[in-house]
Design brief:
30% strand, alpha/beta, Rossmann fold, 2 domains, five-stranded antiparallel beta sheet
Length: 247
C-alpha cells in the first residue's frame, strides 16, 4: 500500500513534535510540518496531500478554519486540533471538510480514531460525498424558505405560515398578512416543510400545528384564526396524535 501523504499544520513546535511522535507510533510519517497559514495554503493547493492535521489557532492572517474553507472543494479530509473546547469554533469547523475535531493535549487513541475516519474516507467515495452533503445541509437556513414572485425572492418564516392550500400544480402559502402562490405539488411542498411544524389535514391542505386554535372532530374542521380548514377522515387521527389530549 502506498504511504499516506499527511501534512501537519501547527505553529507550536512542542505540539508539532508530540503529533509527529504519536504518528510514528502508529506507523505514519509526515510529508511536512508547516507553521504559517499562507504557506500551508499554497502548499496544500500545489501538493494536495491525502489528508491534513490542521491546528485552528495559527499565527498570521489565516486560521486553520480559513484554510479548510479555501480547500473544501478539493475534498481533502481535515482533522482539526485546538487548545479550546469552544462551541463556536466547532460550529465554524463544520463548515469545512472535517473528519475530526480534537482538543489538545490529546492521546494516541484519540488521534488514531480521527485518522482512521479520514483514511476510511479516502477509500470510500460514498463517505466523502456524504460528508460533503452533511456540511451543505448544515449550512441551509432552518427557519424559513424563499418564495419567488415576479422575479423577487421573498423570505417567509415557517412560523408565519398559517396553512398551505393546494390546487393542481400550484400551492398557496397563507400567512396573516399575505398569500404566496408557488408552482409545486402538495407532495413536494410537504417534503419541503419541516415535519415537526406541519401536518396534512386533507389532500389539499397542510396546516401549521402551532397556529391551530381548535379542531372540531364532529364536523371535521380545523380552525386557524378565521379560517376553517377541512379535516379529512383519513387524516384526523394522525393530526390528533401530534397533540397531547386531555379529556
Amino acid at each position: 500500500m502506498e504511504a499516506l501523504r499527511i501534512l501537519l499544520v501547527e505553529d507550536d513546535p512542542s505540539a508539532a513534535l508530540d503529533v509527529e511522535m504519536l504518528l510514528a507510533e502508529m506507523g505514519y510519517q509526515l510529508m511536512g510540518v508547516l507553521s504559517d497559514g499562507g504557506t500551508a495554503l499554497s502548499t496544500i493547493l500545489e501538493e494536495q496531500p491525502d489528508f491534513i492535521i490542521l491546528d485552528i489557532e495559527l499565527k498570521g492572517k489565516l486560521s486553520g478554519i480559513d484554510i479548510a474553507r479555501e480547500i473544501k472543494y478539493l475534498q481533502i479530509p481535515v482533522i482539526f486540533t485546538t487548545s479550546f473546547a469552544d462551541k463556536q469554533l466547532y460550529e465554524q469547523a463544520r463548515d469545512t471538510f472535517a473528519f475530526g475535531y480534537i482538543v489538545k493535549p490529546f492521546d494516541k487513541l484519540t488521534l488514531q480514531s480521527a485518522i482512521e475516519q479520514a483514511v476510511k474516507a479516502l477509500h470510500n467515495e460514498d463517505m466523502l460525498g456524504e460528508a460533503d452533503a452533511r456540511w451543505k445541509e448544515d449550512l441551509v437556513v432552518k427557519d424559513s424558505l424563499l418564495v419567488k414572485h415576479n422575479n423577487i425572492l421573498y423570505k417567509v418564516f415557517y412560523a408565519e405560515i398559517l396553512f398551505v392550500q393546494g390546487e393542481g400544480n400550484y400551492c398557496t402559502l397563507h400567512t396573516k398578512l399575505k398569500k404566496y402562490v408557488v408552482k409545486s405539488s402538495m407532495r413536494k411542498m410537504l417534503g419541503e416543510l419541516p415535519g415537526e411544524l406541519f401536518c396534512p389535514a386533507q389532500k389539499s391542505f397542510i396546516v401549521n400545528l402551532l397556529m391551530i386554535d381548535a379542531i372540531d372532530t364532529g364536523s371535521g374542521k380545523v380552525f386557524i384564526g378565521e379560517n376553517e380548514i377541512p379535516l379529512g377522515r383519513n387524516f384526523k387521527n394522525k393530526l390528533l396524535e401530534r397533540f397531547k389530549l386531555l379529556k
